[in-house]
Amino acid sequence: MSRHPGHELDARARRLLRLLIAQYLVDGEPVGSRTLSRSSGLDVSPATIRNIMADLEEAGLIASPHTSAGRIPTPRGLRLFVDSLIELQPLPRDEMVRLQRELPPGPATVRDLVGNASVLLSAMTHFAGVVTVPRQTDFPLRHIDFVPLPDARVLVILVFSDNQVQNRVIQLAKPLEARDLEQAANYINEHFVGLRVDDIRAHLLRELREASSELHQLLARAVELAAASFAPQDEDVLVSGQTNLMAYSELGNLERLRELFDAFQKKNELLQLMETCAKAPGVRLFIGEESGFAALDGCSVVTASYGAQGRLLGAVGVIGPTRMAYDRVIPVVQATARLLSDALNRAATTL
């Protein structure tokens, strides 16, 4: 998480800022100095509290909306709160049990698992749940078959270690006999099952360079077929519970919702953001314009990366208004990412 400077605040100012933000996150109303005076437990006058609030406002951490005498946190204030003032609690046992129950490894494909995670995150936070679906090429190959089609085309049947089956039609420069396709498939299945497609490509190319003349033709066919069959596929992102966001007054403007839902539908910017989050372990949090995407201004995005067998595969997260219970949402996202990783690891060991 990126940080805003807050070290210049003394303990009293930090305590008041924490109280103000905590109160605002609960009821969404501007918080006045009188409220803070009653709840702070500090032996200071209301005038002193007003002076401290004026200093916090000058620092850009709180703001006074319209003509209200109270203050609300700015995105910069929320950032300081999340980075250094928040007190995270472990996920309640009943919620952890629910996650464990509804994220089983079973015979499900990876897409099934991440789809469940997206729905769960939305249900547990009442925001939009977002999860990236990893590229299939991130998983080891279990089996490959080539079936000849007319016009030098080939049907490729790929079975991956996560139980996912993909059918792709590739176009070759010239047709190959069914016998040649069978030989190439047998060679790949015999030597490279259990490897990821990038590794298979690299091994085939190395063997082709070192091959004797009698193997060269077979390997050349296998390399050509592998290069066409293993072309990278676009990553996807699943979004659940978008309509939950209509319940929040902060996002209630119709034009604002239209832009947000349009971003969910097109997915390009959202996928770009989630891919960035997936590349680093741990929690990432963007408040308002920090995401860099105009459609998410006024929203907070909380994500955590997940993976299996030591590899980062994607990210899970939620999108909601900036006024969210970060102390609860962050542990939910963290736990979901951890349990999804555990489920993927368990599934991998049974294959």
From TrEMBL:
<dbReference type="InterPro" id="IPR036388">
    <property type="entry name" value="WH-like_DNA-bd_sf"/>
</dbReference>
<feature type="domain" description="Heat-inducible transcription repressor HrcA C-terminal">
    <location>
        <begin position="112"/>
        <end position="330"/>
    </location>
</feature>
<keyword id="KW-0175">Coiled coil</keyword>
<comment type="function">
    <text>Negative regulator of class I heat shock genes (grpE-dnaK-dnaJ and groELS operons). Prevents heat-shock induction of these operons.</text>
</comment>
<feature type="coiled-coil region">
    <location>
        <begin position="201"/>
        <end position="228"/>
    </location>
</feature>
<dbReference type="InterPro" id="IPR002571">
    <property type="entry name" value="HrcA"/>
</dbReference>
<dbReference type="InterPro" id="IPR029016">
    <property type="entry name" value="GAF-like_dom_sf"/>
</dbReference>
<dbReference type="InterPro" id="IPR021153">
    <property type="entry name" value="HrcA_C"/>
</dbReference>
<keyword id="KW-0804">Transcription</keyword>
<comment type="similarity">
    <text>Belongs to the HrcA family.</text>
</comment>
<keyword id="KW-0805">Transcription regulation</keyword>
<keyword id="KW-0678">Repressor</keyword>
<dbReference type="InterPro" id="IPR036390">
    <property type="entry name" value="WH_DNA-bd_sf"/>
</dbReference>
<protein>
    <recommendedName>
        <fullName>Heat-inducible transcription repressor HrcA</fullName>
    </recommendedName>
</protein>
<keyword id="KW-0346">Stress response</keyword>
<dbReference type="Pfam" id="PF01628">
    <property type="entry name" value="HrcA"/>
</dbReference>
